[in-house]
Amino acid sequence: MSGKEILDNKSTSSSTVLKIFTYIGGALIFFGVVFLIAINWLTLNNFIKIFTTLGVAAAAYITAVLLHYAKKEAASSVFFMLCALILPIGLLVTLYLYGLNTDELRTTVIISAICLAIFLATQVIFPRTILILFTIIFASIFTISFIDFIVSKNGLFLANVSTYEYLTLGLSYFLLGYYLDFDKKYLLSGPLYFFGTFFLLGASYYQGGFFYHSETISMWQITTGILILSAFLISVPLKSKTILYVSALFLIGYLIDSSTRFADIFGHLGWPLILIIAGLLFIVLGYVVMHIHQRINRKLNN
Amino acid sequence: MKKNYFLYLAILIPIIMVISVVISVQFSLFNMQPKFNFVYATIDTSNTYYCEQKLLLNLFPAEYSKTILPSRLYGQPTDCKNIKYYIYNFKNNTSSHTELAQVTQLKLNRATSPDGYKLTQYCRASFPMGWIDDIGSPNAGGLCIIKNNTEQKIKVEKPFNFGTYVFLGWIIQTSAEGIKK
Questions:
Q1: Is the pLDDT of residue B129 over 50?
Q2: Which one of A136, A156, A215 makes the best mutation probe of the B interface by having the most chain B beta carbons within 10 Å?
Q3: Residue A126 and residue A120: Cα distance in Å, rounded?
Q4: Count of CB atoms situated within 10 Å of the CB of B130
Q5: What is the signed CA dihedral for A178, A13, A131, A32, rounded to 10 degrees?
Q6: Could you report the per-residue pLDDT of A248-262, keeping only the tens digit for each?
Q7: CB within 8 Å: A157 and B138
Q8: Model's pTM, two decimal places?
Q9: Residue A122: is it exposed, middle or buried by C-beta count within 10 angstroms (0-12/13-18/19+)?
Q10: What is the interface pTM, i.e. ipTM, of the complex?
C-alpha cells in the first residue's frame, strides 16, 4: 500500500470516528434536554417551558447553520438533527400552552407543516443529505396526517384509506430513491428503497392477503403477486440488494398465505401437498435470490 | 432533466392522493343522506346489561321471547330508572327527547333502514390498520351509520356516567303519520 493510500484510509476512518462521536454527543444533548424538561415540567413557568424547547431548537438550528458556514459538516449535521428532533416538541409545547392543540390531528398537521417548510427551505439554501432526510420524514408525516384530517373532519371512516396512504408513500419513496441514485446519494437511496418496497408490498399484501381477510380479494392478490415479481426484476437495474431481500421475504409470506387455499381445494391431501410444494419453492427461491444477488454484484463492480 | 421527472413524480403522487381523498370525501358526504330517522335510548346505570335486556324484552317481546333476564348482581339496581329515549332526525342532525309511550307507537325496523343504512355502536375502520387509525382518531367510538364501505359518525346525546346506547330501530312508520322523513 502506498503512503497516500495509507493516509486516505486513516483520513476516512478518522472522519468516521468523528461522526460517531458527534452523533453520540448529539444524542446525549437531546436526551439531556428531554429529561430536564420532563423532570421539571411542573416547576417551570410557561416562558421557560417554551424557551427550553422551542428556544433550544432555534439555538440548534442557528448553531448548525454557523457550523455549516465554518465547514464543520459533521457537527453541523448533528445540530440539524437535534433541531429536527426538538422542534416538533417545542411546537407542541407552544400550541399546548396557548390552548391550540384541541384536535390531535390538526396539531400534527400544523407541526409537520411548519417543520417541513423550515427544512425544505433550508435544504434549498444548503443542499445537505441530512436535510433531505428530514424533509422526507416531515413531508411523509404531513401527507398522512393531512389526509387523515380531511377524512375525520367530516366524521367519516373511509375503508382502506391507510392502505392507500402507504401505497402512495411507498411509490414516492421508490421514485425519490431512484432520483437520488443519479446524484449518488446512496446513504439515502438505500433506506428509501427499503421503506418504499416495504410500504408498497406491505400495503398491497394487506389488501390481498388471506390472513387479513377471510375472503381474499382476487384483484389485490394478483396485484400483489405482480408487484413482488416486479420488485425482483427491478432490483437488478437499480442494483439494490435491499429490494431483492425485502421482496424475497414478501414472496415467502405470499406463498405461505396462498398455500392455505390448497387445503380448500385438496381437502385432507392439502396440508402434505402444501409442505412438499413449499419446500420445493423455497429451494428454487434460494437459487433465484442468489442468482439475482450475483447479477447485482456484477453490475456494482462494473 | 430526465432525472428530475422522477422527483416531480414523487411529489405529484401524494398530491394526487390528497385530491382523490378530497373528492372521495365529498362524494361520500353527498351519498350519506339517510331518509329514515331512528330511535335510540341511553342507559345511565351501573347495571346496563340487565336494563338493556329488560328494555328490549319490553319493546320487542316477539323477537326477544327467549331472552332470560340475567340474574341480579348483588347490590346492582334493577329499577332501570335512568333510561332516556331519543329520536335522531337526519334532516337537521339533532336528537330530540321522547318518551317510552311514543316509542311504542312507532313501527321500527331493527336491522337495516329501507334505504340501506345500518347503525353501529362503535365507529371503527378495518383491523389491523384501522385499529392504528383509531388510536389517534377523534371519531373512534360513538354511533356511526354505515352504507357500503363508508361509516360516518353522528352526534348523539351521550350517556352521563356509565353510559351505553341502545339502538331501538329505524322509524318506518308512526301510528298517526305516514312514513317519516
A1: no
A2: A156
A3: 10
A4: 18
A5: 140
A6: 888 888 877 777 666
A7: no
A8: 0.79
A9: buried
A10: 0.80
